[in-house]
Design goal:
- The protein is an alpha/beta fold.
- It has 20 helices and 12 strands.
- The strands form 3 sheets. It has an 8-stranded parallel barrel with strand order 3-4-5-8-9-10-11-12, surrounded by 5 helices. Strands 1-2 form a two-stranded antiparallel ribbon.
- β6 and β7 form a beta hairpin.
- The protein is globular, with a radius of gyration of 30 Å.
- Its EC number is 3.2.1.2.
- This is Beta-amylase.
- Belongs to the glycosyl hydrolase 14 family.
- It comes from Hibiscus sabdariffa.
- It catalyses: Hydrolysis of (1->4)-alpha-D-glucosidic linkages in polysaccharides so as to remove successive maltose units from the non-reducing ends of the chains.
């Protein structure tokens, strides 16, 4: 089909036609009239009365106009050059706009993004839903939400009904994209003989429905602690569901093993003066929780509160009052040694910094904090490079942690002796998790960015230099320089892309060193925790870095410190380290995700289910207990059912199950009548008791 005269042979035909039309007013009017007669693409409208166009090639001479269009035909080469210059100028401006949005606005725009991508990103930022075909509408979260506890199903993207899923035999690692052949081949080999749970009738995750985007929501907005998944809970109104069963059969947990249930207390239950913030209100809530037979509570003991003002000056007053209150109600305690700051992460509603005296040291020696490639410091926790450096008023970081834990053990000796404290979880990094602070929101990270390596403080670089010299390649004493930025995607980088540098000689050296520093830090701290809390169960928490899990490199896991590409098991070494100290592994459950979250999971090639079972099997291989907590706010039955299926796998040949579960967390929303009734039902099923109404 012939193009209009003056249009250069570029990719975008419509944009080029717009550029060619820059003439004087008289010619523009005639050109518009000609286009109205011919159609934009040089086709004649059909006179058959149908809505279809009959494509009829038109000779170029038809576009020419005797009333002034001859000037254009007389200099086609000059006009073509002008058009090329305009197009280059337009594309240069577009490139600068896109670069600015990526760098400063943290928008995840593809490499060859156009104005449609920009508009879609801005619409999503404003809370709108933009479908792949361009259909745009307000998010359901902007309108009314059904009452708590109401379950709503949703149809697939083709508006077809989701068929009820029936249980199937155990499978291998699920949900691996066919576009990543290496990952499929490796995982199929790695997961042979490894337990994978049978999908339940209410398991509507993307791994269970590979061809459908259907999902059952629990009627409440859900937010993730780490990592954040953007998007709000999407609830589809009843009239959109045609033929979907109103109730799904539910697994009966009566007679299953007893799994203790703990409830996490609010982050600010103890204020900065180390006093109970609201003792009367908390006591009422604890009595209500006791009435449904929860086993105990979990609470953070913040380093930034207890040792706030001077080294080795500890104030435990608020915790003393809290622990006595809990013990009088005959509840157990799980305590977290929180050596990180609170505030700045998703879900943080209070601000608790590191001790003031540590901040003073950091102002004169900022290398005590983790540092990224651009030199930005992260005061969320101390760098692991100073674990054995005497830079904290004559003490090493390891000694500071040990003195704090020993003080706690002496202060609350009676609670240890009578068994009121059932477990101590030891904070090993940001958010109390054993990982690098690879995705700080304060530095602009947004899901599903790959994050950045955090090894550029003086002490970490010194350790890297030593490792490179021992390897015989001193020029390897640096971090990789082709890793993108916080919000990059694996395929945009030379290091993390398929067959990228991560799997080269230097890449394997660096990643092995980077992950070994993580394992060594956990080993050192837990060895002292075991000494301080001898006779009491200790635990360490691992995060679920599930995005980019279906790619070959597992980029987000690599920057977090888990050397877990498709050709290597990055969690077995961590499980062996925990087994060495008799520590419990605390790992978040995979709960039900909402429709928009499922879209995000697909775009990020995520597989939370596959990741969870890889970690769980690594722990069970070395026979260490597994505790768990929910990563999302959960108040509906479908979400609770998903947790139950994870905690008590239905078809495990050895009858294994998790050792305990901590609900995240106590709030006024949980105490609402309908939500609390569902939670009570969940607790009974975790305890293996029979409940009424086995339909959901």
């Amino acid at each position: 089909m012939q193009k209009l005269v003056g249009v250069c042979e570029e990719d975008d035909e419509e944009e080029m036609e717009m550029d060619v039309k820059e003439e004087d007013e008289e010619n523009r009017e005639k050109q518009i009239a000609a286009e109205m007669m011919m159609g934009v693409d040089g086709v004649m409208p059909s006179t058959s009365g149908s809505d279809q166009f009959q494509y009829q090639p038109q000779p170029q001479e038809q576009v020419s106009n005797s009333g002034g269009g001859g000037a254009r035909r007389s200099r086609p080469l000059e006009e073509k050059e002008r058009t090329k210059l305009r197009e280059r100028h337009r594309r240069a401006i577009t490139a600068r706009i896109l670069a600015g949005l990526r760098r400063h606005g943290n928008y995840n725009l593809r490499v060859r993004a156009d104005i449609n991508d920009v508009i879609a990103a801005l619409a999503r930022e404003a809370g709108w839903v933009v479908l792949p075909d361009g259909t745009t509408f307000p998010s359901r979260s902007q309108s009314s939400t059904p009452a708590a506890g109401t379950s709503a199903g949703m149809t697939s993207s083709s508006s077809q009904m989701i068929s009820q899923q029936t249980p199937s035999p155990p499978t291998t690692l699920q949900g691996v994209s066919s576009g990543h052949h290496t990952t499929v081949e490796y995982n199929a080999c790695r997961m042979k003989g490894v337990f994978m749970p049978t999908p339940s009738p209410y398991d509507l995750s993307s791994t269970a429905h590979a061809q459908s985007s259907g999902m059952v929501a629990d009627g409440r907005e859900q937010t993730e602690r780490l990592p954040p998944i953007t998007g709000s809970m999407e609830v589809i109104i009843d009239k959109q569901i045609i033929g979907l069963p109103t109730k799904l059969p539910e697994r009966d947990f009566a007679g299953t093993p007893y799994v203790p249930v703990y409830v996490m207390l609010p982050l600010g239950v103890i204020n900065m003066k180390c006093e109970l913030a609201d003792p009367d209100g908390l006591l009422k809530q604890l009595k209500v929780l006791k009435s449904i037979n929860i086993d105990g509570i979990m609470v953070d003991c913040w380093w930034g509160i207890v040792e706030a003002h001077a080294p080795q000056e500890y104030n435990w007053n608020g915790y003393q009052r809290l622990f006595h209150m809990v013990r009088e109600l005959k509840l157990k305690l799980q305590v977290v040694m929180s050596f990180h700051e609170c505030g700045g992460n998703v879900g943080d509603d209070v601000c608790i910094p590191l001790p003031h005296w540590v901040a003073e040291i950091g102002r004169s020696n900022p290398d005590i904090f983790f540092t990224d490639r651009e030199g930005r410091r992260n005061p969320e926790c101390l760098s692991w490079g100073i674990d054995k450096e005497r830079v904290l008023r004559g003490r090493t970081a390891i000694e500071v942690y040990f003195d704090y834990m020993r003080s706690f053990r002496v202060e609350f000796d009676e609670f240890f002796e009578d068994g009121s404290i059932s477990m101590v979880e030891v904070g090993l990094g940001p958010c109390g998790e054993l990982r690098y602070p690879f995705c700080p929101v304060k530095h602009g990270w947004r899901y599903p960015g790959i994050g950045e390596f955090q090894c550029y403080d003086h002490y970490m670089l010194k350790d890297l230099r030593k490792a490179a010299e021992m390897r015989g390649h001193s020029f390897w004493a640096k971090g990789p320089d082709n890793v993108g930025s916080y919000n990059s995607q694996p395929h945009d980088t030379g290091f993390f892309c398929d067959e990228g540098d991560y799997d080269g000689y230097y890449g394997r050296f660096f990643l092995n060193w980077y992950s070994q520093v993580l394992v060594n830090h956990g080993d050192r701290v837990l060895s002292l925790a075991k000494l301080a809390f001898d006779g009491t169960c200790i635990a360490a928490k691992l995060p679920g870095i599930h995005w980019w899990y279906k790619t070959a490199s597992h980029a987000a896991e690599l920057t977090a410190g888990f050397y877990n590409p498709c050709n290597r098991d990055g969690y077995s070494a961590i499980a062996a380290m925990l087994q060495k100290h008799g520590a419990t592994l605390n790992f978040s459950c995979t709960e039900l995700h909402a429709l928009e979250q499922q879209d995000s999971l697909r775009e990020a090639l995520a597989d939370p289910q596959g990741l969870m079972w890889q970690v769980v099997n690594a722990a069970w291989d070395v026979c260490i207990p597994i505790a768990s907590e929910n990563g999302f706010l959960c108040h509906g039955r479908v979400g609770y059912n998903k947790i139950l299926d994870s905690v008590k796998p239905v078809n495990d040949p050895d009858g294994r199950h998790f050792s305990s579960f901590a609900y995240h967390r106590l709030s006024p929303l949980l105490m609402e009548r309908q939500n609390f009734m569902e939670f009570e039902r969940f607790v009974k099923r975790m305890h293996g008791e029979a409940v009424l109404d086995s339909q959901v």
